[in-house]
Amino acid sequence: MNGKSKYEMFHHQSPWISSNRRYCHAIQRGVVYESVSSDVFTNLAFEDWVYNNLDLSTTNLLLLWRNDPCVVIGRHQNPWAECQLRQLWGSNVKLARRRSGGGTVYHDLGNLNCTFFTDRKRYNRKENLELITNALRSTWPGLDVTVSCRDDILLDNFFKVSGSSAKLGRQIAYHHCTLLHSVNTPELKSLLHSKKEGLTNRATQSVESAVKNLSDVEPSVRHSSLVDVIAEKFYSQYQPLYENKVYPVDPSSEVDWPGVLSSREELGSWNWVYGKTPQFSVQRSHTDVSVLVHVHHARILGVVIQALDGWIDTGLIQELTGHLAGTKFWPKDVAEITEAFLGAVIVDADTRQKLHLICKLLLETLS
Ligand SMILES: Nc1ncnc2c1ncn2[C@@H]1O[C@H](COP(=O)(O)OP(=O)(O)OP(=O)(O)O)[C@@H](O)[C@H]1O
């Protein structure tokens, strides 16, 4: 960095400081931004941008954002284990992998996300969560919200309305949390219900909770009112003499946040969303035969097919498993290989039926 601090680099080079006066409040002690985008990948890329580019040694930055329907898994999770992929693929719900750890959550426009960026030394999850619960209670005394020992926000000491995770760097940290005010809870429950049978996994597992929307208890809770009350509490805590202004930001602006679009592309890529899945295995069985698929970086590492001696010619099995090794663990890719194999192989009707069964079991491991 040629001896310059991050902020100096940023100050001199970044157009959003040097020429775009709209964003020149970055060195206040506290500032609230609200993203104008509802694209999960753009919002996650913007979080990344702030994390990598801003010097927040004197500033607390709160970013408020929400997304169109999506399932967001933690950095070290396995989407095959965490959600109903077949249902998700057939819907308009996107799947995203965030940079922070933790479990799987569902977002739609009825879920507000709050990202608290601070200097690493001032990182304090509990303080952030208390800020939210204090803001909620002082505006809607009927909301009995508390922070649990897992850093969830619970309603009536039971229903989860907020989950948290964080990313801690050497200098900067962020803590982000969700806030359910009016999400589609049936969709949340059906997409996240998984516990896939036959799957062996060392990835982080989600902790399922009963959830509820804040608006079920206080119908006047809306996105805009939440933004206002949380921003107000934030300013009263960090910047008491400052006007309670929520600054709209366009996180897709390459001019304001150079590099944000390539980060968005990476976060939306198959290699990130699926490819970062820790190694796992899935098994499917039928009375006569079982199929075990080992998967690494969402590619097939190997397939083990077990059957009674003489049930099928082992040479055929070796040929099929050889074709599959290294293939993407993805329905289209696996289907193409099994179809090509079945189309080319010359065998009697009984063997063909057995091969069809094996290929069917293979495809069942995929969702
Ligand atoms: N938007 C949401 N806000 C709050 N809870 C949610 C949301 N979506 C789903 N949930 C519930 O939270 C559960 C996942 O919680 P889990 O604790 O594993 O992850 P987390 O809250 O992201 O973070 P962490 O693992 O760091 O506590 C889901 O199974 C579901 O019951």
Question: What does this protein structure show overall?
Answer:
Residues 56-242 form the BPL/LPL catalytic domain. Pathway: Protein modification; protein lipoylation via exogenous pathway; protein N(6)-(lipoyl)lysine from lipoate: step 2/2. Belongs to the LplA family. With 367 residues, the chain is an alpha+beta fold. The protein has 14 helices and 16 strands. It has helices at 6-13, 15-18, 40-53, 79-82, 85-89, 125-139, 185-192, 214-217, 223-238, 260-268, 270-273, 314-324, 331-344, 349-364; strands spanning 30-35, 60-65, 70-73, 94-97, 105-107, 111-119, 145-147, 153-155, 159-162, 164-168, 172-180, 199-201, 246-249, 280-285, 289-296, 299-307. The strands form 4 sheets. Strands 10-11-6-2-1-13 form a 6-stranded mixed β-sheet, with helices on both faces. It has a 4-stranded antiparallel β-sheet with strand order 12-14-15-16. Helix 3 (40-53) crosses helix 10 (260-268) and helix 13 (331-344) packs antiparallel against helix 14. It starts with 5 loop residues before the first helix and ends with a helix. Mean pLDDT is 91; it is low at 1-27. The structure holds adenosine-5'-triphosphate. The site of adenosine-5'-triphosphate has 22 residues, from strand 5, strand 9, strand 10, strand 11 and helix 7.
